[in-house]
Design a protein that fits this description.
This protein is α+β, with helices and mostly antiparallel strands and 129 residues long. It is built from three helices and seven strands. The longest helix has 19 residues. It is globular. It starts with a strand and ends with a helix.
Length: 129
């Protein structure tokens, strides 16, 4: 298995934390920007479908309107995860989405580009920015 590096990307988003949290933590919210279809079972395993592919990830931690962390089932037992964190800036009254992911060193640029593309789709879906 290749070593991975941790990346973090911050996106300023003109939306409430409650609305954003639903887009990041529910099958219906994740559908359309993160995957074509999303299912969740009773054990907090989310299955993401893209055209002819699918992958499953376990919800491993969450804090209402602040943070949600998933781990791909293929990575169970490893330290790798992907996380969405929402930060509310009191002074500016703005919200930032911070995406954390672990990616192959030789795919860092591609992964960052994909996250940018996906978050832009989510923002269009929400009608913000």
């Amino acid at each position: 298995m290749k070593d991975r590096i941790k990346i973090q990307i911050e996106f300023p988003i003109n939306s409430s934390t409650g609305i954003l949290y639903k887009c990041l933590s529910t099958p219906n919210g994740l559908k359309g920007w993160f995957a074509d279809k999303v299912l969740c079972d009773e054990e907090s395993v989310f299955t993401f479908f893209w055209k002819d592919e699918h992958e499953s990830a376990r919800l491993i931690s969450q804090k209402q309107n602040e943070q949600i962390r998933f781990q791909w089932l293929v990575d169970e037992g490893e330290e790798y995860y992907f996380e969405f964190q929402l930060e509310f800036q009191e002074l500016s009254r703005s919200v930032s989405l911070i995406v954390t992911d672990y990616v192959d060193l030789d795919d860092q640029e591609g992964a960052m580009s994909l996250w940018n593309e996906q978050v832009n789709v989510m923002m269009r879906k929400l009608g913000v920015n």
